Amino acid sequence: MKALIMAGGYATRLWPITKSKPKPLLPLGEKTIIEYILEKVKETGLPTYISTNKFFESHFRPLSDKYNIELIVENTYKEEEKLGTIGAIKNAIDVLGEDDYLIVAGDNVFSLSLLDFVRRFNELKKTLIAVYDVGDLELAKRYGIVILEGDRVIYFEEKPSSPKTSLISTGIYAFPKNVITRVEEYLKKGNKDAPGYFIQWLLESKTEIYGYKFGGYWYDIGSADSYLEAFKIFLKESYIEEIQISPYAKIIPPVVIRRGARILGRSIIGPYAYIDEECIIENSDISDSIIFRDTIIRNSTIWRSIIDEKCEIRNLELRKSLVGGHAKIQRGD
Fold first, then answer.
1. What is the pLDDT along the chain (333 residues), one digit of tens a residue?
2. In the sheet where 280-282 sits, what is the strand order?
3. Where in the chain is the domain with CATH 3.90.550.10?
4. Considering the entire predicted model, what is its pTM?
5. Cα gap 142→138, rounded to integer Å
6. In the beta sheet, which residues pair with residue 121?
7. Cross-referenced SUPFAM superfamilies, in alphabetical order (predicted)?
8. In whole angstroms, what is the distance from residue 33 CA to residue 21 CA?
9. What CATH number matches the domain at 235-330, 3.40.50.150, 3.30.1050.10, 2.160.10.10, 3.40.50.720?
10. d(Cα 126, Cα 179) in Å, to the nearest integer?
């Protein structure tokens, strides 16, 4: 069995932040999103691969070297060329060969033990999907909803307009070899290139599918709100590297402040703030926010916002904002 982490999307819902950086490499606490997933996958002992695209390949190389994980790179450079997830899985199988596969979305974080999940798959040797109750029928419309009889899936509907349940399929799947190899057949029939529709198609073609229900937490990091909420959950304590800090500044934990940052004047940082390398924060209040490297913020208040790298923000109050890289925004002097 092989483990394949899907990290080839262009994350358009988080643009402009993810125009220049892949979503799985966004910080979540002191680590990146995908590092939490890698820690879970490592427990299984499976040979592990990351599926990404040509545009973001260089971003994943340091991670690949650090964790000794091979990249499977699809030949696309922009959203319009992108393979869907099923197409990317087929591309990976073409490279890695036929086998049982553990498939994990690279932008979900979860409490599920993948070791227990794989053990259950090895008992069944049938398609197994991880399912989670989001507790909200409106929210369930975004996902594939699942009805179980015992632990067998008897009904599956992708993105229903009127969900029958709030139990949904997460981005975690285990496929036996005889099922995963059907992705080519599925795509040739012109079906939608997405995992939920593949599961629905399998069920309609009488394939046995089982659900593995788990509690705890599950975050699909698809929007700024869900990203910031997950960031708060995962930031349990402060991580402060070598920085310059004014004696008049105040740090309210938990925060992450990376090397080379300068916290000047009467700034207040935190709680739940991420300040990246070489940022300059002067006479500003920043909380519930993520500030990427080489950004300058002066005389401003930033709350529940994400500001990309190399920005300059002066004399502003920003709330629930997304600011793209290299932006210069100020009000007066």
1. 999 999 887 666 777 777 778 888 888 888 889 999 999 999 999 999 999 888 888 888 988 888 888 898 888 766 655 667 888 898 899 999 889 999 999 988 999 999 999 999 999 999 999 999 999 999 899 899 999 999 999 999 999 999 999 999 998 999 999 999 899 888 888 887 788 899 999 998 899 999 999 999 998 887 888 889 888 888 989 999 999 999 999 999 999 999 999 999 999 999 999 999 999 999 999 999 999 999 999 999 999 999 999 999 999 999 999 898 899 988 865
2. 244-245, 262-264, 280-282, 296-298, 312-314, 328-330
3. 2-233
4. 0.86
5. 8
6. none
7. Nucleotide-diphospho-sugar transferases, Trimeric LpxA-like enzymes
8. 12
9. 2.160.10.10
10. 8
Residue with tokens 């990351």: 50
CA-to-CA distance for 58 and 76, rounded, in angstroms? 13
CATH architecture of 2-233: Alpha-Beta Complex (3.90)
Q: Where in the chain is the domain with CATH 2.160.10.10?
A: 235-330
Give the amino acid at 80. E
